[in-house]
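Aggregate trends can hide what the representation actually does to any particular protein. In the encoding step, the backbone of a single protein was reduced to a row of integers, each denoting a local shape. The record that follows shows the chain in one-letter code together with its fold in token form.

***
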Amino acid sequence: MGRRGTVTGVINRAPVDLATIRQLAAEVDTTALCDVADDIRVMSSALRCRSANPVLCGPAVTVRCRDDFFGVIQAIEQAGPGDVLVVDGGGRETALVGELFTRVALSKKLAGIVLDGGCRDLGFIATCQLAVYSRHVTPKAGTTTRLAALGETVSCGDVPIHPGDVVIADQNGIVVLDPGNAVAKLGAAAEVMATEARVVERLAAGASLGDCLNLAAHADRLARGEPSKLRFTL
């Protein structure tokens, strides 16, 4: 690991079943993931989607920089198809990503860019199918005179992101999974989605929430001070 403010070298990639992860992620949303994983990392809602497509899924390629986007250039050069570029810009307003970087990310088939800092050139980015998230929008760009920390654990959206962590985003927000248990959590989320689909069918047929939940039993146990959990009864 390099010293703060220095380039750490080539990004190391842990082996992970990305094909299965992407297949499962296409079938679930971030709300279901949060329902099955209490320890899931949820990025701050201050990071907003700036592009036409909010959906992304892929392993994190990380870079930490402050008011200088030279490290972002280096990270994009190392990133490959399906990667998510995660930029720790310290939450500052300076733009570290714009149209040119987004075009390069598109051509390299990255899954998206998540930036805890500023971006610019929304005239292009707002029409782009590459998912681009940022905390700020500003016309002022950073410098290109400082080396950055590349391939280290960073902070983005107020949560820690390790290189290779699985980053997933949709209309509801951005979540982060450990690659080692991502498949299991995505599978559990898929089961939640299937159950909710059956609930929707029953509601459409005229059922009430009480018909689909252990509502009365749950209320009774809570009233008696007993542990209980609200759950579907299908």
Q: What stands out?
A: The two ends are 51 Å apart (CA to CA). The chain has two domains: 18-180, 185-223. Helices lie at 18-25, 30-36, 70-78, 99-107, 122-125, 182-204, 209-212, 215-223. The longest strand covers residues 56-64.
